[in-house]
From TrEMBL:
Domain FAD-dependent urate hydroxylase HpyO/Asp monooxygenase CreE-like FAD/NAD(P)-binding intervals: 5-210
Source domain of life: Bacteria
Name of protein: FAD-dependent urate hydroxylase HpyO/Asp monooxygenase CreE-like FAD/NAD(P)-binding domain-containing protein
Length: 642
């Protein structure tokens, strides 16, 4: 029986298992033995594990999350449809799982003698009382808890296992891989942290997901300073993994970062410490427990991420990308510079999606028809005087899209006092909540959907190895504009701000370790300085291969089996095979995820968007199965140990 080891057992690994099952009837005659190696539960993995606070939620609506391919997905393998999270919740609430095992599917067992034991069908997905209650009340437009998503992912994992060829087996190892050995000509030895003998595999796929990094010299120095002076310091980390009990109540704490990690932090240090939200005369108010710190938060932009929209399109359905198309950019030779060649087309694509919804969904707010506007729009460069004139002729100033203002909304603004700035920023956040909650501004959703299309095309361009000059700005802008929290999270943030638990520092934030405290301020309120008894870096660590803390990647780099390109693991563009230091793809090793040069960011796929992760999973699964079929046809493998 052919053996596959998947290093990582989270959502990406589950998607690969599903694609292996879907493609096997065409490409591979026989059963497979799959080993899933991950310290966390199969299906959910680390980020989506059940064992985290029930207060933490997804930042996507239930109807916008799916683990199944659909008719929009362009791939060689068969499309196998299934329920979105919302559909699954509607069909399965009140039962332990949704659907039983089909006859002929694989069996899932625990590691022999290991800690995990698994049942054989999908009824093993159990709902606790909180998850069950949430499922019963869930609407398609709800933003579910991460525990609900954990249950959906575990259920999908079982469906994926059940789709494997008859006689297949899946074994789960709740541990880590620390080393892999073996050339392309021999079976791979996969060494686990908790056993002396390796697994022996025909193919290994790295689906590592969220990765930790080494603590930097700067973070080490700041930590030492904090320890010396009795302060609190928390380095960048996934918020659900951090021990927040070390953050003292009632103290002034500086927070650097205003994205999703900060939103989770505010939830856990506010409501997570016993505070409550109540509605008074229609306005949400926060009642402190007395255990909260005072969070002084700032960032480069100085504003929170935009909230998710709470409405649907009112106009024409979105179109596939027509201006920013990776295949067209790759027709020539040489590098594709991000700023000069890619971004102007990306901006035009997003603006087109925005104006398409504005013109077709809100025709009373524009001065011409969509057909004439779009025809002229298509012929113009985004950064041209003619494009600005076209906008001015047809669209009121308040309805025009301005990427520079979107990116830095308070740049250049200066306030005479801290309280004046607090009032201004509370108003800014309130306006954002109102805009993202009212279908009158559904053009923002048009832009969001266009951003998803751009995201997929950029992934193709990046995978080609010819994209240059992208320094991380794009991902930050995408996350800020399109991947923010639910609207009610920002409403809670406003309540926390009015209660004095959160204070806004402003844009271009600075922090200094001076006089036994952390001093902080910003360009928004010149002269205003906070003296903090702690500093929290509210952001995920940026993983690079040079500074990875993952023992497997470190060992592969040391052996010359992995090479970095701009901090990412180099893989072949066509099938994600791992490329070694000599530039040669390894026939038996693959890698998928945001830590690779074929990166697809860690976001769940939205239905009907031809999501990059689905396409990549299909490519990798088919490459794995073709290799196994070719090897089976030869019938002889060198079993010597590398």
């Amino acid at each position: 029986m052919s053996v596959i080891v998947l290093v990582g057992a989270g959502p990406r690994a589950a998607g690969l298992v599903e694609r292996i099952g879907a493609n096997a009837p065409e490409l591979f005659d026989g059963a497979v033995e799959i080993h899933l190696v991950d310290p966390f539960a199969a299906g959910a993995g680390r980020v989506w594990r059940h064992e985290q606070s029930p207060l933490l939620r997804m930042n996507s609506m239930a109807e916008d999350v799916t683990m199944f391919t659909d008719s929009s997905v362009v791939c060689e393998g068969p499309v196998r449809t299934g329920p979105s999270l919302a559909e699954w919740a509607g069909a399965g609430s009140g039962v332990a799982g949704l659907g039983g095992a089909r006859s002929g599917g694989a069996g899932l067992v625990g590691e022999a003698g290991g800690a995990a034991e698994w049942a054989v069908d999908s009824s093993a997905v159990e709902f606790d009382a909180g998850v069950r209650a949430e499922l019963e009340e869930m609407e398609p437009t709800s933003f579910p808890s991460r525990r609900v998503q954990s249950a959906y992912l575990k259920w999908f994992h079982w469906q994926a296992v059940d789709s494997l060829p008859a006689g297949s087996t899946v074994l789960v190892h709740p541990t880590k891989v620390v080393r892999i050995t073996g050339s392309s000509q021999m079976r791979q030895r996969v060494w686990l942290a908790d056993r002396p003998e390796p697994l022996v595999a025909d193919v290994v796929v790295l689906a590592l997901g969220h990765l930790d990094v080494e603590v930097s010299a700067e973070q080490t120095a700041v930590g030492a300073y904090a320890a010396e002076h009795g302060l609190t310091y928390l380095a960048p980390a996934y918020t659900a993994d951090v021990d927040l009990s070390v953050v003292p109540a009632g103290e002034d704490i500086v927070v650097r970062g205003m994205g999703l990690a900060f939103v989770d932090l505010a939830v856990l240090l506010g409501q997570g410490r016993g505070g409550t939200f109540v509605r008074v005369d229609g306005r949400l108010e926060y009642v402190p427990s007395g255990r909260e710190p005072r969070l002084h938060v700032g960032s480069r932009r100085g504003v929170p991420y935009h909230s998710k929209t709470g409405y649907r399109l009112r106009g024409a359905a979105p179109e596939p990308p027509r201006f920013f198309v990776a295949s067209e950019l790759l027709e020539g030779t040489g590098e594709v510079d991000f700023r000069s060649r890619a971004w102007p087309l990306m901006a035009k694509e997003v603006a087109y999606g925005y104006y398409r919804e504005l013109f077709t969904g809100h025709p009373s707010r524009v001065r011409t028809g969509w057909e004439s506007f779009s025809s002229r729009f298509a012929s113009l460069d985004w950064y041209s005087d003619e494009m600005r004139a076209l906008e001015a002729s047809a669209v009121a100033p308040a309805d025009r899209i301005d990427f520079e203002r979107l990116d830095r909304p308070i740049a250049g603004l200066s306030f005479g006092s801290e309280e004046e700035f607090q009032e201004y920023l509370r108003g800014y956040v309130a306006d954002d909540i109102a805009r993202r909650s009212s279908a009158e501004y559904s053009a923002d959703l048009g832009a969001f959907l266009a951003l998803l299309g751009v995201y997929g095309q950029l992934a193709v361009l990046a995978a080609s190895g010819r994209l240059s000059g992208e320094d991380g700005w794009w991902h930050g802008f995408f996350s800020y504009f399109a991947s923010g929290p639910p609207p009610d999270r920002l409403e809670e943030l406003l309540a926390l701000a009015r209660a004095g638990v959160v204070r806004f520092l402003g844009a271009d934030m600075w922090v200094e370790a001076v006089d036994g405290v952390f001093l902080a301020g910003s360009a928004s309120v010149p002269g205003h300085v906070v003296r903090g008894r702690g500093l929290i870096e509210a952001r995920l660590p940026v993983h690079t291969l040079e500074h990875t803390a993952d023992p497997l990647l470190r060992s592969l780099v040391a052996a010359g089996d992995v090479v970095g390109v701009d901090g990412l693991v180099r893989v072949s563009a066509s099938d994600s095979r791992v490329v070694d230091a000599a530039g040669v793809p390894h026939a038996r090793r693959f890698a998928v995820g945001p830590y690779t040069t074929n990166k697809a960011y860690a976001a769940f796929s939205r239905p009907q968007t031809n999501a990059p992760a689905f396409r990549q999973n299909d490519e990798v699964a088919r490459a794995v199965l073709r290799f196994l079929a070719a090897e089976a046809a030869v019938g002889v493998v060198d079993e010597s140990v590398a």
